[in-house]
Amino acid sequence: MSMHFKPRRATCIVECEHGILLTETSHDLLLLPGGQANRGESRLEAAIRELKEETNLQAHAAIFLFDHESRSNRHKVFYLIASGTPIPMDDAKALYYYDTLPANKAAKLSPATREIIEHFKAVKAEHQHHLDALKAICLKDKLPL
């Protein structure tokens, strides 16, 4: 019996004024912020680190939403509340917002990103009041994680 190893990826959903934040890779692929966890690093720690490295946003709260297995990764998807002005850094060459994505860029969304966002929308519809309360509490004092 052979088992295919899939990297452990921390995937971030961050809602900004213009929608869900996306990063563009050097291969013109649009992904949710995130990346692989380093040895000894939890995926929550990786999510917070990757968000800062890719977008310069400072996380103030993070909650685990769900697991997602894609063709190439095992994702732990986190909802992060962050502050700052998003700017592309590290391996993100540009930033976009899912809700205002130009048609020519929508074709560049990874299949996993599409699936994760659709799953998130269902979770959000059921738990919007909890997410709003979390934002209000966490952004009041803006204490970094």
From TrEMBL:
<protein>
    <submittedName>
        <fullName>NUDIX hydrolase</fullName>
    </submittedName>
</protein>
<dbReference type="InterPro" id="IPR020084">
    <property type="entry name" value="NUDIX_hydrolase_CS"/>
</dbReference>
<dbReference type="InterPro" id="IPR015797">
    <property type="entry name" value="NUDIX_hydrolase-like_dom_sf"/>
</dbReference>
<keyword id="KW-0378">Hydrolase</keyword>
<dbReference type="GO" id="GO:0016787">
    <property type="term" value="F:hydrolase activity"/>
</dbReference>
<feature type="domain" description="Nudix hydrolase">
    <location>
        <begin position="8"/>
        <end position="85"/>
    </location>
</feature>
<dbReference type="InterPro" id="IPR000086">
    <property type="entry name" value="NUDIX_hydrolase_dom"/>
</dbReference>
<dbReference type="Pfam" id="PF00293">
    <property type="entry name" value="NUDIX"/>
</dbReference>
